[in-house]
Write a structure and sequence with these properties.
By secondary structure, this protein is of the alpha+beta class. The chain has three domains: 21-236 and 402-453, Bira Bifunctional Protein, Domain 2 (BirA Bifunctional Protein, domain 2), CATH 3.30.930; 253-382, YbaK/aminoacyl-tRNA synthetase-associated domain (YbaK protein, Alpha-Beta Complex), CATH 3.90.960.10; 471-567, 3-Layer(aba) Sandwich (Rossmann fold). Helices cover 26% and strands 29% of the residues. It is built from 14 helices and 31 strands. The strands form eight sheets. Strands 3, 7, 8, 9, 10, 11, 12, 21 and 24 form a nine-stranded mixed sheet that branches. Helix 1 packs across helix 11 (445-455), helix 2 runs antiparallel to helix 6 (167-187) and helix 2 (44-63) packs across helix 11. The two termini are 22 Å apart. It holds the Pfam family HGTP_anticodon. Homodimer. One of its GO terms (biological process) is prolyl-tRNA aminoacylation.
Length: 568
């Protein structure tokens, strides 16, 4: 492709609203442009890369027998009402009405549509198992779109769904998908980890996320320093063994703490240890309000609370409701004298706190020497806190360390969550009706593109892996007005295209501009046609290593092939 014909609007300056390196470079190098917050146009270079990622996905899906289809983005509300998610999915679901006032949603995912399809077509065990996937644009009304393609309101996704007669078959396909996803992200040259995860709004159990390691990742990965254990912090089980201090319980005492609301303020005001403090939160789990207690040096894990209660949704209670329920504002809450009609849940560590400090449910007052059982009730103990660095690894090997990660893939064993709600069933070998078992498997395709950019760049621009680069060779003549250079460039362009994908910079620009754009765009190799064109000699620069070598015209194709093979 001739660069003069290609739409590559490069920028010299860093866009003010681009916070992370990959977002900055994709904008500066002319790969994407923002249309609205969280909504982007993929320009020709980005579309080339997306196509290559999609090709890798299709090859790996085909290898495990998953077949491609394409479902509508516009989905009728009735299907979501059948599954129950029309009411539970939340404000991220983009809802709209047609001219007849019928409700629709723009699909963030397609469990309902695919289940509706299968229940009408699959009636016998003989047609199971079945695995189908699509690559399609999805929509989620993110509250805060950020980081370019990492968190958008419109994005490209690969979603697959599998259907089974028994658990053994579901397990087999789940494992096949795990291997396929590992292959996909390895082929995209990503440094990633598969971690235990929460199923979120999708539902189901036995789920893993594929996390690309990155400091700008929005998720925290807890991993062992002595094994391959890794989990999203939401799911990492705390196996710490606590001991109760050998000291007598003191009398409960209420003391004034004017203006002291946070744990840090209380610790400083009372010269106390955070371990002695109780952090009190009021959460709303579905339609029930609950009090949750953790130690002052710990953080409540809302996902663990949700799972313990078997709730569909969990959120912080509204401050005004908290004041009505508890009689005090946030910062003065505690379990002593809490309303009898509100359940109190506590993290396991709380029962080992002797002579604790907690809010008195009266603004600007706290209790000291509060002890569970004697001074306040706990209806249910459990693992309700986030794991911390230095905690024992849940698998019993080593201790926990943290890393940041970008989620690029997620696999679920859905079980019968959707098939039961939507009556998708089949007849087994004995003619008895059984509910179909389901699996669900997603990859953020556009997010994968950005994750690759985040891991593959330098101070000059993007540095694409060979198999994902929009072109393999950037052919750059220093001066197209020079007859020798122009002639050799055209000849090389014709020859190289027989073996490689080539972008030729035939623009009437200064050499410095061309070289800066070339580094910014990040193609694996650059062939510069300059002063030695008359001798049939050109220069090759390897983008990743910066290595430069002079090559004769007749040796050029072979040299490039060797370089690309080493980079692959």
């Amino acid at each position: 492709m001739r660069q003069s014909k290609m739409f590559i609007p490069t920028l010299r300056d860093v866009p003010a609203d681009a916070e992370i390196k990959s977002h900055q470079l994709l904008l500066r190098a002319g790969y994407i442009r923002q249309v609205a917050s969280g909504v982007y146009t993929y320009l020709p270079l980005a579309r080339n890369v997306l196509h290559k990622i999609e090709t890798i996905i299709r090859e790996e899906m085909e290898a495990i027998g998953s077949m491609e289809l394409l479902m509508p983005a516009l989905q009728p509300a009735e299907l979501w009402q059948e599954s129950g998610r029309w009411y539970s999915y939340g404000p991220e679901l983009m809802r709209l009405k047609d001219r007849h006032e019928r409700d629709f949603a723009l699909g963030p995912t397609h469990e309902e549509v695919i289940t509706s399809l299968i229940r009408g077509e699959i009636k016998s065990y003989k047609r199971l198992p079945l695995s189908l996937y699509q690559i399609q644009t999805k929509f989620r009304d993110e509250k805060r779109p950020r980081f370019g393609l990492l968190r958008g309101r419109e994005f490209v996704m690969k979603d697959a769904y599998s259907f089974h007669a028994d658990q053994e078959s579901l397990d087999e396909t789940y494992n096949d998908m795990y291997r396929a996803y590992s292959n996909i992200f390895s082929r995209c040259k990503l440094d990633f980890r598969a971690v235990l995860a929460d199923s979120g709004a999708i539902g189901g159990k036995d789920t893993q996320e594929f996390m690309v390691l990155s400091e700008i990742g929005e998720d925290t990965i807890a991993y062992s320093d002595a094994s391959d254990y890794a989990a999203n912090i939401e799911m990492a089980e705390v196996k710490t063994v606590y001991t109760k201090p050998d000291k007598p319980e003191k009398p409960l005492e209420k003391i004034p703490t004017p203006g002291q609301k946070t744990i840090a303020q209380i610790v400083d005001f009372l010269k106390a240890d955070p371990v002695q403090c109780l952090k009190t939160l009021v959460l709303k789990a579905d339609d029930e309000y609950v009090i949750v207690l953790v130690r002052g040096d710990h953080e409540v894990n809302e996902i663990k609370v949700k799972n313990l209660l078997g709730a569909e949704t969990i959120e912080m209670a509204d401050p005004e409701i908290i004041k009505t329920l508890m009689g005090a504002d946030i910062g003065s809450l505690g379990p002593v004298g809490a309303p009898e009609n509100i359940r109190i849940l506590a993290d396991n560590a709380v029962q080992y706190v002797v002579n604790g400090i907690c809010g008195a449910n009266e603004n600007d007052y706290h209790y000291i020497n509060a002890n569970p059982g004697r001074d306040y009730r706990v209806d249910l103990y459990g693992d309700l806190r986030n794991i911390q660095e230095g905690d024992p690894s849940p698998d019993g090997k080593g201790t926990i360390r943290f890393a940041r990660g970008i989620e690029v893939g997620h696999i679920f064993k859905l079980g019968t969550k959707y098939s039961e709600a939507m009556h998708a069933a089949f007849l087994d070998e004995n003619g008895r009706e059984q509910v179909i078992l389901m699996g669900c498997y997603g990859i953020g395709v556009s997010r994968t593109l950005m994750a690759v950019c985040e891991q593959h760049n330098d101070d000059k621009g993007l540095v694409w892996p060979v198999n994902l680069a929009p072109f393999e060779v950037h052919l750059v003549p220093v001066n197209m007005k020079d007859e020798k250079q122009a002639g050799l460039t055209e000849k090389l362009y014709t020859e190289l295209q027989k073996q490689f994908t080539v972008l030729m910079d035939d623009r009437n620009e200064r050499p410095g501009v061309k070289f800066a754009d070339s580094d910014l765009i990040g193609l694996p190799t650059r062939v510069t046609v300059g002063k030695k064109a008359s001798e049939g000699i050109v220069e090759i620069k390897v983008r990743k290593t910066g290595e430069v070598l002079e090559v004769k015209q007749e040796d050029l194709s072979g040299t490039i092939a060797n370089i690309l093979a080493k980079l692959a």
